[in-house]
Amino acid sequence: MASSTLFPMIVNGQPVASPATLDVLNPANERLIGRIVDCSSEQLDATVQAAREAFGTWRDVPYAHRQNALRAIAGVLMNNISELKGLLTAEQGKPLAAAQGEIEAAAWWISQVAEMELPVGVTDAMPGQRSITRYVPLGVVGAIVPWNFPVLLAIWKIGPALLTGNTLILKPSPFTPLTTLKLAELMTPILPAGVLNVITGGDALGPLMTAHSAIDKISFTGSTATGRRVMASAAENLKRLTLELGGNDAAIVLDDVNVDAIAEPLFWAAFTNSGQVCVAAKRIYVHDKVYDDLAAALVRIAGNVKVGDGSQDGTVLGPVQNLPQYRRVKSLIDDSLQAGHNFLTGGNVTDGIGYFVTPTIIDNPPENSRVVQEEAFGPVVPLIRYSDLDDAIRRANDSEFGLAGSVWSSDTERAAAVAARMDTGTVWINSAQNLTPFAPFAGAKQSGLGVEGGVEGLLEFTTPQTVHRLVA
Ligand code: NAD
Questions:
Q1: Rounded to whole angstroms, how far apart are CA atoms 38 and 466?
Q2: Over the chain, what is the mean pLDDT?
Q3: What pLDDT digit, counting tens, does each position of 133-185 carry?
Q4: How far is the C-alpha of 352 from the C-alpha of 339, rounded, in Å?
Q5: Closest residue to atom 42 of ligand 1, CA basis
Q6: What φ, ψ does residue 362 adopt, rounded to 5°?
Q7: What 3-state DSSP class applies to 284?
């Protein structure tokens, strides 16, 4: 593949090019790896029209056939894994094994969504009337996804949207569009034209989608700041919305933990995908009694992690995915350096080629410091000492975010009692980040609106239609 290769958009089952293009770079070496179309407003209109026409028939395709379409998508992912994982590593930065893991997870996820059924509600409670509620599709859905898990997060939207009878216009992040475009091309033989369209563009395209009067719903995953803009823009035609937004997840480590047992999973709760996970542990509150031992164990693990180009053998963590995010992570590190915080490990960011940051752990910074209050979304984590559990829970909850959190303890019941007091949509006990297609994943507070996952996630792509019949 030449680096100047244009990856066309896939609209109405056809590749679509344009003279207006954007470059896509490899974050490990900053080299050009491909170009994408910068979709114009006319091209968006044509896409919406194609999706609208396809909706006319897709909505009536039997549910069992749509289930088969999802199973076929899982097959496309698995059958093309070697090509897709290379592309994903090149554009996203994650190591090849992690890229393979993401594609496998996406295939498994959509194969499980395929088995889900929509409920049908029947009530005879009104005398002389039977009321039957079915969940019908909304129409044309616009899906907007970020750059940390481009394939998995796209699949989270493709599966439920198509299964429930909607057609989809998917916009990947301009930083990581290539694997998604390749996937859409590979899917064209298995889906009717116009059912799944993938369009690409820069900062202007998302707002054009959210404001488009013929798009019925936006399913958005990204930052809270952008989520607010999406919500304001969607008001015009009262678009349905699902917003999966940012988080500043707290991990609370109780005084009874076995440090040796939890250090490794806790480390990866924070640093998987170089910290670029919405539900990464981003603030770690550790009881005074175990603080020093745990800090030493985490530093030991960090010392054995090789950070580098994800395409090279032995790399465990890749670069930060893009330049703006790299600058953001650096500014958090600089802020801590200037404030005189103690770095347990990491913190040395060089300005060479590639956006590399080694795992950085900051020793007990003040609660009001930027590194505690802001979502880093990178390999920088504060370890915060506490002695009063109630106070730790209060601090964990004192955030505009409410995405997820975790509690670490040798006593599961004790941990569960702490979990119940966390103001977040998801809490893990002695683990983190493991999401399931079978349960709703919802951001509390400003971490989101609506849910993905579970039957609840399917229902987000439908509206209830109740038909009342008279009965004797
Ligand atoms: P982002 O909000 O900058 O961008 C996300 C997507 O929105 C991209 O495709 C972008 O092109 C598009 N976009 C940008 N401006 C837009 C606008 N005005 N209108 C519509 N679309 C617009 O986020 P990011 O930097 O790509 O991703 C990181 C953020 O995503 C973090 O905050 C992270 O926590 C969050 N995230 C959340 C989840 C979740 O499920 N809750 C999952 C992954 C990432």
A1: 42
A2: 97
A3: 999 999 999 999 999 999 999 999 999 999 999 999 999 999 999 999 999 99
A4: 25
A5: 278
A6: -105, 135
A7: strand
User: Mean pLDDT, to the nearest integer, of 384-389?
Assistant: 98
Pairing of strands 167-171, 196-198: parallel
User: Does the C-beta of 405 come closer than 6 Å to ligand 1?
Assistant: no
Q: Give the model confidence (pLDDT) of 366-380 as tens digits.
A: 999 999 999 999 999
- Show the domains of the chain with their CATH numbers: 6-245+447-470 (3.40.605.10), 250-436 (3.40.309.10)
Q: Is the CB of 443 under 6 A from ligand 1?
A: yes
- Please give the full DSSP string across 307-371, using - where no structure is assigned: BS-TTSTT--B---SSHHHHHHHHHHHHHHHHTTPEEEE------SSS-----EEEES--TTSHH
Contact 371, 380 (CB under 8 A): yes
Average pLDDT over residues 35-52: 98
With contact defined as beta carbons under 8 Å apart, do 146 and 174 qualify? no
Q: Please name which of 416, 405, 446 lies closest in space to residue 283, comparing C-alpha atoms.
A: 405
Establish whether 244 is a catalytic residue. Answer: yes
On whether the CB atoms of residues 147 and 179 are closer than 8 A, the answer is no
Which is nearest to 468 in space by CA: 35, 173, 138, 131?
131
* Cβ atoms 206, 141 nearer than 8 A: no
In ligand 1, the atom with minimum distance to the C-alpha of 244 is: 41
Residue of 278, 375, 452, 460 marked catalytic? 278
pLDDT for 472 equals 87
Distance from residue 26's CA to the centre of ligand 1 (Å)? 19
Catalytic annotation on 236?
Answer: no
At residue 27, φ and ψ (nearest 5 deg) are -70, -15
Tell me which long-range contacts 224-230 makes (C-beta under 8 A, separation of at least 24).
224/400, 224/401, 224/446, 224/447, 227/446, 227/448, 227/449, 230/144, 230/206
169 lines ligand 1 (CB under 6 A): no
- pLDDT-based confidence at residue 1 (cuts at 50, 70, 90): low
Distance, in Å, from the CA atom of 185 to the CA atom of 401, rounded to the nearest integer, reads 37
Q: Which residue has the tokens 């802001």?
A: 374
Distance CA(376)–CA(362), nearest Å, equals 12
DSSP letters for 249-267: -EEEE-TT--HHHHHHHHH
Secondary structure class of 373 (helix, strand, coil): helix
Pocket of ligand 1 contains residue 249 by CB under 6 Å: no
Residue indicated by tokens 């399913």:
219
Could you tell me which residues come within 8 angstroms of residue 178 by beta carbon, excluding any fewer than 6 positions away? 7, 24, 33, 34, 36, 87, 90, 91
Residue 2 has pLDDT above 70, yes or no: no
| Overall size of the chain counted in residues | 472
305 secondary structure, DSSP code: P
pTM over 0.85? The answer is yes
Atom of ligand 1 nearest to the CA of 447: 41
Q: How many CB atoms lie within 10 A of CB 398?
A: 11
